[in-house]
Amino acid sequence: MTMYVVGHKIPDSDSICGAIALAYLKNQIDEPAIASRLGELSPETAFILDKFGFEAPEFKESYAGENVYIVDHSELTQAPDDIAQATIVGIVDHHKLGDLTTSTPLECWIRPVGCSNTIIKMMYDFHNVEIPKDIAGIMMCAILSDTVIFKSPTCTTADIKCVEALAEIAGIEDYKALGMEMFKVKSAVEGTPVRDLVMRDFKDFNMNGNKVGIGQLEVIDLAVFDDIKAELAADIAAMKNEGERHTMMLLLTDIMKEGSEVLVISEDDTLIERAYGKAPTDGKVWLDGVLSRKKQVVPPLQDAFA
C-alpha cells in the first residue's frame, strides 16, 4: 500500500522539502510513497522549489484509511485532523516527542539536530541511495533555513557536514550566499496580509492541557515591522480568541542581531517572566540570543506551565 509522506500544518521548508526527499528515498527502496502537504507554501519554500525545479507536493487534508509517514513533528495539534483514522508507519523528526500515538509498530528516526532533512540525509546514507542533484539542493536549503545559516543554537556538526555534502552534490559553491537570498525572501513582508504573516510559520502546542500558539517571522532587519507591529499584536489577540488559546506568541526574529522581539497575549500575566526571566511591557519583550522556537522558546514555556 502506498504511503503518504507529509509534514505539519502550515508547512515550512523543512516540512515540504523533507516530504519530497523522503518520498523519493522510499520509492528507491521499493516502498511506494507520495509526498503531500497540509497547507500552502511559504514564500521561502516557493523560492527553494522554483530554484531547483520542483512543483509543490500534492495538497491533501484527509488521510483516513491511509498509511502515513510523518515528517518534522510528532504533535497531534500539527498532524492531519483525521490522523487517528490513519496508520502511522514512520516518523522522522528533530523536535521534542509529542503526543502522537500508534496502534502498530513504526519506523522512527528522531535525532537532536537542527533539521529533519539532516536526518533524511542520514537515511539516504543508511540505505546507500544516491541523492539526485535537485533533491540535494532542496535538502541543503531546508537545513540552512532551520539552522538560520548555522546561527541557531540547534545547529550541530551533523547539520554543517550535511550541508557541505549536499552543496557538493547540488553544485552550489557558496551555500551561505544562497541562504542569505532565502532570508531576503523571508524578509519581504510589504503588501502581505497581517494574518498571512502571523500564520507563515505558526504552530499550536498542547502545554499541560493548555493550547498555546507560537508563530515566528525571521528577517534580516526588524525595521520591516515598524509600520505593522500594532496590527500584528491585534491579530494575535484575535487568534487567541478565535482558537480558544491560553496564550499566543509571535517571535519577530532578527537573524543579524541574533535575538527576538516577542509579541504576546496570555491568560497568565506572569507566564512570560516565569519562562524567560523578563516581563513584557505593553505586550512586547526582547529576548537576546533567542533564535530557536524549538530549543529556546518551547522548553522553558512548557516548564512554566508544569
Automatic annotation (TrEMBL):
<dbReference type="GO" id="GO:0046872">
    <property type="term" value="F:metal ion binding"/>
</dbReference>
<keyword id="KW-0464">Manganese</keyword>
<dbReference type="InterPro" id="IPR038763">
    <property type="entry name" value="DHH_sf"/>
</dbReference>
<dbReference type="InterPro" id="IPR004097">
    <property type="entry name" value="DHHA2"/>
</dbReference>
<dbReference type="InterPro" id="IPR001667">
    <property type="entry name" value="DDH_dom"/>
</dbReference>
<dbReference type="GO" id="GO:0004427">
    <property type="term" value="F:inorganic diphosphate phosphatase activity"/>
</dbReference>
<feature type="domain" description="DHHA2">
    <location>
        <begin position="179"/>
        <end position="305"/>
    </location>
</feature>
<keyword id="KW-0479">Metal-binding</keyword>
<dbReference type="Pfam" id="PF02833">
    <property type="entry name" value="DHHA2"/>
</dbReference>
<dbReference type="Pfam" id="PF01368">
    <property type="entry name" value="DHH"/>
</dbReference>
<dbReference type="InterPro" id="IPR038222">
    <property type="entry name" value="DHHA2_dom_sf"/>
</dbReference>
<keyword id="KW-0378">Hydrolase</keyword>
<protein>
    <recommendedName>
        <fullName>inorganic diphosphatase</fullName>
        <ecNumber>3.6.1.1</ecNumber>
    </recommendedName>
</protein>
<dbReference type="GO" id="GO:0005737">
    <property type="term" value="C:cytoplasm"/>
</dbReference>
